[in-house]
């Protein structure tokens, strides 16, 4: 943003008003056209391009967008940031039909049990990752049983990926892209920032009080780990529930530990990354107030991170195999 006049023209819209302003196909077409253009577009060119004969009507629709989504400069109309974000959101989901991928084997090891291959599928903007040899990490059905997962296929985890992310990629490439995308989102969320809108997140931890995993997943909570991390955005609809290791991903000492073991926490592309991170131990000293120690092990070395009720890491210990 430059110049005071631009700031003065900017308009702040309520969510209701923003939806109303976008609820017309000519207006959405205007945003798309300006999004595709490299430079400002003049009124007459824009109207010709969108094939709207009624100049008055076209002017009315343009007016509805001007101020918040688009701006008028001496050279013509161009997108403002909110308009760009609308186009980015539309294009991330805009593929000809909603893509799905039936369960497909990829050459990748299960980080729980070491079995290879694992299976991935894609629907509802999620890459599902399954093991056919072990009981997985999370129980439950995706989206309240909207999608049936056969009993012999157990859930390791789900990864978020917009439809645009699956287009032009093989199943394995889509899985790797989803892993990196989700890793970036996880770190942003663990830093207290909403990965969708940047607003403040409210975070909490929950503990299953009757946790037993003798038979794999817990009978009480249906998960492998008792301590779960939850975040909810104070502004948009984003929320996440995941194993607590996700929250610890921002800890410098844990990141150093991963790097010392040849793993890049910014670029998790190897099975070994998950093999170090996810078969971790949780030692619950107290539920209320919360006091838990999480221990990660790789190459005969381990690192223990203890958290208290503030959800902050209050102690870190690193032990080599020889000392244990
Ligand atoms: Zn497995
Ligand atoms: Zn449990
Ligand atoms: Zn948000």
From TrEMBL:
Q: Known Pfam families for this protein?
A: DUF7347, DUF7351
Q: Which residues form the DUF7351 domain?
A: 107-313
Superkingdom of this entry's organism?
A: Archaea
Q: Which InterPro entries match?
A: ArsR-like_HTH (IPR011991), DUF7347 (IPR055771), DUF7351 (IPR055775), WH-like_DNA-bd_sf (IPR036388), WH_DNA-bd_sf (IPR036390)
* CDD domains in the record: HTH_ARSR (cd00090)
- Where does the DUF7347 domain start and stop, copy by copy? 15-90
Annotated organism of origin: Halalkaliarchaeum desulfuricum
- The residues that cross the membrane are none
What this protein is called in its record is ArsR family transcriptional regulator
